[in-house]
Amino acid sequence: MGVHRGSVRTVAHTERPGLRLLGLPHSGGRAENFAGWRAALPAAFPATAVELCAAQYPGHGDRLAEPPQEAVGAIAEEIVADLTRLPPADLLLFGHSFGSAVACEVARRCPGAGLDVVLLAVSGAWAPGDPARTPRDEHLLPDEELWKRLVALGGIDPDIASQTELRDLLLPAMRADIATHERYLACQDPVRLHCDVHVCIARGDPLVPLRAGRHWARLTTGNTSLDIGHGGHFHVFDDPAPLLENLARRIPVHTKRRRFGA
């Protein structure tokens, strides 16, 4: 799909992007999960050329033969290195679930790499270090039980859910992601960010309650905002148009003026 650039894949290309939207997938997710966002981009961002990109983690998608990376920081370092090789553009990071942890670490490294993050959007995820979160050990569950829980969340295609061979092929990377995410959320080293942060939570998400949105404001010196939507844990892929329109409204005013020539 698109141009192969290591961990960062081009989903919707534009010659001179004013904004680069980078999607960071959930546990077991692939860059291809963001392909459904392409059609909604022009209406959501009518005044600028948006290049949609997505990350492909080691052990996922066409990188299935690689061992999964077990440190969020290492995943982020590879992504940032790839981003520095792309034509310059303002950066909007969108991380869903496990991808929110990766997005945090990408945002933390971007200033040192000369990359301008205009907005960090985190979806369906607790903030790292949130004391209100009860630790979970789902990565220790037996294969059958873990697979059933993942299928119940809605992130696995029903055609795949019943195929044991595919389950055995995909589950190791999912388990590694979940374990990596758990360790990151429990880390006592506070995340320090300076970009604006927008939090997306769904009322029907069984993993992330509404109170999970509060702690994100403590991680950044920038502005924070919260959007409470409908649907379950994977609502961001069910109907992306309202989400993308909301993200466009959250981009700082000074950035819009610079990009749109106002």
UniProtKB/TrEMBL annotation:
Keywords: Hydrolase
Listed SUPFAM superfamilies: alpha/beta-Hydrolases
Gene3D superfamilies: alpha/beta hydrolase
Any one biological process term the GO annotation gives: lipid biosynthetic process
GO molecular function term, any single one: hydrolase activity
Pfam families on file: Thioesterase
Keyword Hydrolase found: yes
Segments forming domain Thioesterase: 21-246
Family of this protein: Belongs to the thioesterase family.
PANTHER family (UniProt xref): S-ACYL FATTY ACID SYNTHASE THIOESTERASE, MEDIUM CHAIN (PTHR11487:SF0), THIOESTERASE (PTHR11487)
Protein name: Oleoyl-ACP hydrolase
Organism whose genome encodes this protein: Streptomyces naganishii JCM 4654
Gene transcribed to yield this protein: rifR
